[in-house]
Design a protein that fits this description.
278 residues, three-stranded antiparallel β-sheet
Length: 278
């Protein structure tokens, strides 16, 4: 796959416009977009030297440095730097071509990028992930029975791990791990479990026995057994969640960031089993 750095057409048009303000030397007789180098270059007649014309964006040598950031250096003042960290001006987006050209041709390159707070960057990575809610199974699967434990099982997904190099050369690792299964049973009770122990029926740790059955409103108000139903609910809504814990490392030690809960609602009807009088 060819990764696009700056749109050639837009860059050439922008350079042509800038040429009205800063004409290219008469020695320059041919310009072209060099796909390999990701920039417009011009051949100088006579000695064959290839140099960028005025107005050409100053792209980094490292193709992974995709984002340009305006900054301020204590010595040279306003400047810019390149980074592989999202959040700056995306030089691979064609809509940003005019702004990238303006910044990189009007400001000097910063002597060094400002330091990045690894914890802030780790939080950005952690919160950018699409952390999955659980995919639970319930037993009995469709309708529970009062007084009989209902079991929930939900496998924990594999941890998510990300590694990147910060502008100052440090290696940042970020991970997200599911550490807890949470179950709100919908009747005022909630339980918390080690995901590895929530294995479902018969021996799993996540189970709960409902006391009242659930019934439609007409049944509750008109049937002789209506008083045995939950007074307001025609079904319980279980809320089953995974707690994802984020952490980052710059070496051998992991530092915990915090946690995010991802939940899924599960409607659940509960009936009752009653013996028949002979």
């Amino acid at each position: 796959m060819v990764v696009r750095r700056l749109a050639p057409t837009i860059a050439v048009v922008a350079i042509a416009l800038l040429g009205f303000m800063a004409p290219v030397s008469a020695a320059t007789n041919r310009c072209k977009y060099d796909e390999a180098r990701g920039r417009v270059v011009c051949e100088v007649s006579g000695d064959g030297t290839v140099t960028p014309p005025p107005g050409t964006p100053n792209l980094p040598d490292d193709p992974g440095l995709r984002y340009v950031y305006p900054s301020t250096d204590p010595v040279i003042g306003d400047c810019y730097y390149w980074s592989n960290l999202p959040g700056g001006l995306d030089a691979w987006d064609p809509a940003n071509d005019p702004a990238v050209i303006a910044i990189t041709t009007r400001l000097p390159l910063c002597p060094s990028p400002p330091p990045i707070d690894p914890e802030i960057r780790a939080w950005e990575v952690f919160r950018s992930w699409d952390l999955a809610p659980p995919l639970p199974s319930v037993s009995p699967p469709a309708t529970g029975i009062t007084g009989v434990p209902t079991h929930v099982a939900a496998d924990a997904p594999d941890p998510i791990v990300h590694t990147e190099t910060l502008p100052d050369g440090r290696i940042l690792r970020v991970r997200a791990t599911v550490t807890l299964l949470t179950v709100d049973w919908g009747d005022g009770h909630a339980t918390f479990h080690d995901p590895s122990s929530a294995t479902g029926y018969p021996g799993g740790s996540a189970h709960h026995a409902y006391r009242l059955k659930t019934c439609p409103a007409f049944y509750r108000h008109n049937h002789p057994s209506g008083p045995l139903c939950h007074p307001t609910l025609d079904h319980y809504t279980m809320t089953i969640g995974h707690r994802w814990v984020g952490a980052y490392s710059l070496g051998a030690t992991w530092v915990e960031l915090g946690s995010l809960d991802q939940t899924i609602p599960v409607p659940y009807d509960v009936d009752e089993a009653r013996g028949l009088n002979k």
